[in-house]
Structures are given as C-alpha cells and as structure tokens.
Amino acid sequence: MYEGKCKNLHGHTYQLHITISGFLNEIGMAVDFGEIKDIFQSVIKSRLDHKYLNDVLPSMNTTAENMIVWIWEQIEEEMVKRGLTEAGHRLETLTLFETPTSSATLHREWMIDE
C-alpha cells in the first residue's frame, strides 16, 4: 500500500500521448488521426473519464506506471480488432501525464516478451 502524499482519494486531469507507426497508404497516410481518436475514446476515455479508477480498472495500485501498461494492452487489442496490426501498424510509445509536469512513458520494446 502506497503511503505517500497521494494516498488519499484525489483526482487528476490526465493527458495521453499516443504514437503509432505504420506504412503509408496511397494518399500518404498511415493511420487517420480520427481513427486513433476513436480508439482512444471508445476503449480508454469511455471507461475511465469521470470514474473512480479503483472501481473500473483491474485490481492494481492506480499509479501512472500501472495504468499506462493497462492502457497499452487495451489500445493494442483494439488495433488488432480493427485490422491495423495486420496492416503493419504498431503502437510505439504512450506517455500518460498525471499532471502537466509528471508523466510515465512506455515504449514498444519494453512490452515485448523475449
């Protein structure tokens, strides 16, 4: 159990930066920003926005570090469902800002089991 300054119930205004790589299509686009936004809205924002995170996330300490791994897994799963992974697109980096000056970053190579 975390015993620091943020141990009591409180809120944050999170911001998520998503980096996806992929091959360009015939008009010079990898993944339409609208589709990335839709993925975020449907699998992340709809489940977490204005929610008590301990009630909606799996049983975990809701640190930015734990949350970003969960978010990565949800986005990757949705990319597979939409055929983006099969088309050669990859989630490369996520950065979750808990405050304007505090963030956690996750890179693809850290999520690959060897």
From TrEMBL:
Reactions mediated catalytically: 7,8-dihydroneopterin 3'-triphosphate + H2O = 6-carboxy-5,6,7,8-tetrahydropterin + triphosphate + acetaldehyde + 2 H(+)
Its pathway? Purine metabolism; 7-cyano-7-deazaguanine biosynthesis
**EC top class, as a word:** lyase
Q: Keywords assigned by UniProt?
A: Lyase, Metal-binding, Queuosine biosynthesis, Zinc
Cofactor(s) for this protein?
Answer: Zn(2+)
Residue positions binding Zn(2+):
10, 12
Example of a GO biological process term: tRNA queuosine(34) biosynthetic process
How does the cofactor bind to this protein, according to its record? Answer: Binds 1 zinc ion per subunit.
Record EC number:
4.-.-.-
By sequence similarity, the record places it as follows:
Belongs to the PTPS family. QueD subfamily.
Q: What is this protein called?
A: 6-carboxy-5,6,7,8-tetrahydropterin synthase
Q: Organism source for this protein?
A: Terrilactibacillus tamarindi
